[in-house]
Amino acid sequence: MWWVLWVLAILLALFCMVDVWYFLRAAAVILRAWFQPPVWDVTAEQVLTGRVTPHDIDMCHMNNARYLRECDFARFSLYMRNGVFKAVRALRASMVVGATTIRYRRALCIGEGYELRSRIVTWDDKAFFLEQRFVSTKDGLVCAVMYCKQSVIRSSPDKILQHLCKRKVECPEFPEDLQHWVNFISASSQALRAESGLEEKNK
């Protein structure tokens, strides 16, 4: 009987201190992607389907933070199926989100189904840039669109793609709206460095 109480206490502590559902969902997404057919085109759009549940909502529509959470899971699936995760591990590199921006166009309401369409748009010498769209299955409207800068650590996008494709991969051009966002990130970084005195220290 005591061991049951210990297990319950440990589970309670885990759920209090760690976002257990996030890690369980991430594991399920990665496992599902593992058994799905690979996607050989790294820039191909991949689609995950979802539905707004009571756990996702505030005021009867999907909470703003839930969009970013769902985008996390969609990127896990994307990188598993197109081989980017495998290449990152092989090169002993890692990836982190360096920046995101999202535009909400119309609320996704409780019970509403949607497609989350993710794709790598382009890259530079330090990061991949992705677009992720929430498209309502009710009327096909793009309800939200997000750009994500996925920074590569201890390697580069070019090296990852060369490892995958065994050749040099031509980088697609930056769309105009994405380029504006990248310019904003650069300007913001320079301003923050100047504010903290880093630029003077590096001279």
From TrEMBL:
Pfam families: 4HBT_2. InterPro entries: HotDog_dom_sf, THEM6_lcsJ_thioesterase. PANTHER family: PROTEIN THEM6, PTHR12475. Belongs to the THEM6 family. This is Protein THEM6. It comes from Oreochromis aureus. The gene is THEM6.
